[in-house]
User: What shape does this take?
Amino acid sequence: MKKTINTFDNNAKALTLDSEYRLDPATGLWTLIVEGREARPSNTGRNDVESTLLDSETQRDPCCPFCLGSESQTPETVAKAALRLAAREKSEYVIDDFEIVSPTPTEEFDKSDWFVRVFENKYPFFRMNSTGENVPTFKAVERVLTSNESTSNALFNSISGRGRHEVVVDSRRHVRSWSEFTELEAKLTFRVFRSRLRALRDSGCFAYSFVFKNVGSGAGASQRHSHCQLTGNVELPPDVGREIERLIRYERARKTRGETASFWDAVLNAELQARSRVVDFSERFVVYCPYASRFPVQTEICPRFNVPFEDYSEDAIDELALLARKTITALEEAKRRFYPDDPSPLDYNVVMKNVPARLTSDLLEGVGLARPRWLILPSIVKKAGYEIGCGVDINPIAPETAAQLLRETF
Ligand SMILES: [Zn+2]
Assistant: This one.
């Protein structure tokens, strides 16, 4: 009997890894200290070149832990997009031939039916700590430094890292980028995202869960085979909390001013009116290069409707999946045109900015104000001295130029 993905097992796992958020008393910035991840296998040397071992028919690389047939090299499957039994004999598949399931250990032996596969990261940022423990929030710890209480003026403050860290192998073929995905693979990937994020949300264990993708060693990937990562954070990350605070302040001001459009509707309306930074739009989504893009050719996909990603309809999920694939394809083509002498593939990150599943009591006014959006960030420049020195990023390509470039290749 297959259990559905929604029955997420939130039993606390033994803490075998210590990671710790530490607060810098001078800057007020948090760092997650995680030892042991350097032991993770990397095929960085092979990351940016095609494998010579690749079987062109099956598109498998026998040395790759993420390819179909190498499942024993990774932790056991937590969830997978699997072919329904009834569809096994078909020669061509459609999206309805698949179901997203959490396999039991015995079914795990039937390894050949997955198209997207999820497992716990062997080298996680954090693991579930013992539940029920009363851990202070980031804000409570930040307040310690400036508290008048003489007993709580310690300079070195930390919170243990608690959460869940999963890997999503989004193709069973040894491909590198979303631009190489079939329509079916793209749709299955986003349906698995929705399923896993819904399971994490419904478990009630996590304040903030999101998906990200690193492609190429320049973007931090340690494996060439296309994959994504998903984290469930027990605590609301400080940056996300600050964004919610800004949304609350905007919301109060807009009501005072008597304006009707919420923050995200106002931003998208303004971008659509200006047009210069818009790459494409539909009834549901806008693809654009934000006004104050921190990175060159930073591109965002933002929904025009206010629904949590976990509750998207199939149609919305499928449209988003194809739009993400199309955006990556356009970015890669733009790179080829912009740097014709550089044959190396584009390195990039995709980062989902999700809506928090749980807000701290001081931010409850922010419920419903955030919107799930997708940032696509080509790795063209690295943070250098100026950026580190004053915390302001330098972007050498104006978003208007970037959008123009992308409109031509979209
Ligand atoms: Zn592979």
